[in-house]
What does this fold into?
Amino acid sequence: MAAIPREIRLTEGRRRLDVIWEDGSASCLSAATLRARSRSAETVRAGIDGLAPALPDDIAITAVEPVGAYAVNFTFSDGHDRGIFPWPYLRALADGAVT
It folds into this structure.
């Protein structure tokens, strides 16, 4: 499985990220999943402490910023803008390999 996106698109009122991967497969990730699985220090620490992030029901992605050629960073409607999503991590989330 190639972990490089060919296309990234926000859909469903910016509440879903659709990805077409280099190998031609497609993935859909909700903004809530991406926000909850952010690898920011704050989110990682909360996970270690067994705390789930309190997210609004209508969480959306307000910005998508490339990070070099290896990752993307999202800004969410709750103001969270930390946490880089490298392509392999984004693919693992899409494939359900991250628990």
Summary: Residues 5-94 form a domain with the NE0471 N-terminal domain-like fold (CATH 3.30.2020.30). The helical segments are 31-36, 41-48, 87-94. The chain has three helices and six strands. The longest strand covers residues 5-11.
